[in-house]
Write a structure and sequence with these properties.
Length: 395
């Protein structure tokens, strides 16, 4: 086979999309990158990167990877020290460790800081919402809400859990499953003395707990805008419990009141920090949603998926970011092989898609782990206790 010029259309400039674009750019493969957001979202969150870091290094330009620490909530945290601290799960009723998983190197990153860092050197076209896709012969066309369109050889949907590309591929089968848990995800700051205390007692990566009330609560650092001013530090909570009341089912606006009502019997650091929250803290409505991948018709290798678009999972085992990078790595490898004429486009993308669906077993594992956090008595049988944060299928 002779070399084949390719143009890849990447939909979504989140972690997966940005890393794919860098990987293609690094290998001199033409791409265009679109994102529907015209301004950054008003919500951020953290991602735990561990086993996928060597893959990320191969995809990014050396200068961006060498400065990846700027994406961390605390840029001063050494990745090896973070690896030793690992992921901590406590007994929420005592505050004592219940399970812990370590890894040689861990980088906890802030998604908004990461997107800003990784956008460097890329031509990201923002404010472009995908409306439709058509396949015409050997080409595929993306249509956007501003009336523009883009023609290429391949479209990859890296456009998140509510992926438009997935909807185009699968129709009703693209719909996410809503899990039966009340879910709160919100950021907050504290007075300087309380922020320093919280930072000193919490795990620097992931500090979460399961409670005899069959409830999950996670405490995380999100950002330290000024290392010397603790009052500027931003933390966030992830909280889930079984839907039990009409208020939970309807997700009524009294979220802080409902959260505080669930904190009886909780130990520190969680109990005190919830008490210290400002009464006007913003807790937006949210749902815990997943999507288990099912095989799709990729139109002879012209349309595919990556990251949350390909396998939306809960945060309860912390695999989403690593899998997004794994998808990106495998996709770039396949596109590179196509461009070199080593394999046909249809064969390469068929193999890629099979890998994506196989990696999707993590969705079921994350669902099982979510259930385990809400089943305190049986938590020791959970995937986290048995597998830690290693990917499924590893030894």
């Amino acid at each position: 086979m002779s070399e084949k010029p390719l143009h890849v259309i990447v939909v979504g400039a989140g972690l997966a999309g940005l890393v794919i674009a860098h990987g293609l750019n690094k290998r001199n493969i033409s791409y265009s990158l679109y994102d529907r957001e015209s301004t950054p979202r008003d919500r951020s969150w953290g991602i735990t990167l561990s086993w996928a870091l060597p893959l990320l290094e191969q995809l990014l330009p050396a200068d961006l990877f060498s400065e990846i620490k700027v994406c961390q909530p605390d840029p001063t945290l050494d990745s090896k020290d973070a690896g030793k601290a690992g992921i901590l799960i406590r007994d929420g009723s005592t505050g004592l460790p219940k399970a812990q998983a370590t890894f040689p190197v861990i980088r906890r990153v802030n998604i908004q800081k990461t997107k800003k860092h990784l956008a460097q050197g890329l031509d990201v076209q923002y404010g472009k919402k995908l409306l439709d896709i058509s396949v015409e012969g050997d080409m595929v066309i993306a249509y956007f809400d501003d009336g523009s369109k883009e023609t290429g050889n391949v479209i990859i949907g890296a456009d998140g859990g509510n992926s438009q590309v997935r909807k185009w591929l699968l129709g009703d089968a693209a719909a996410q499953e809503v899990l039966p848990y009340a879910f709160m995800n919100f950021a907050f700051s504290l007075p300087a003395d309380k922020a320093k205390w919280a930072d000193s007692v919490m795990n620097p990566n992931v500090d979460v707990a399961t409670h005899p009330k069959n409830m999950y609560l996670g405490l995380f650092l999100l950002d330290k805008p000024d290392i010397n001013k603790p009052e500027t530090w931003i933390f966030y909570f992830l909280v889930t419990w079984n839907i039990e009341t009409k208020e939970d089912e309807e997700n009524t606006p009294n979220r802080l009141e409902r959260l505080r009502a669930h904190m009886d019997g909780w130990a520190d650091p969680y109990k005190s920090i919830v008490e210290w929250l400002a009464d006007d803290v913003v807790i937006k409505p949210d749902q815990l949603r997943i999507w288990q991948p099912t095989p799709w018709d990729n139109k002879e290798g012209k349309v595919t998926l990556a990251g949350d678009a390909a396998h939306s999972m809960t945060f309860h085992r912390g695999q989403g970011g690593n899998l997004a990078i794994k998808d990106a790595f495998e996709f770039v490898q396949k596109i590179t092989a196509i461009s070199k004429g080593e394999v046909s486009q249809s064969d390469a993308l068929e193999e890629y898609d099979k890998g994506v669906v196989l990696r999707g077993e993590e969705v079921a594992i994350s669902k099982a782990q979510a259930a385990a956090f809400h089943d305190y008595v049986n938590f020791d049988n959970s995937p986290f206790v048995k597998m830690g944060i290693k990917p499924a299928g590893s030894t």
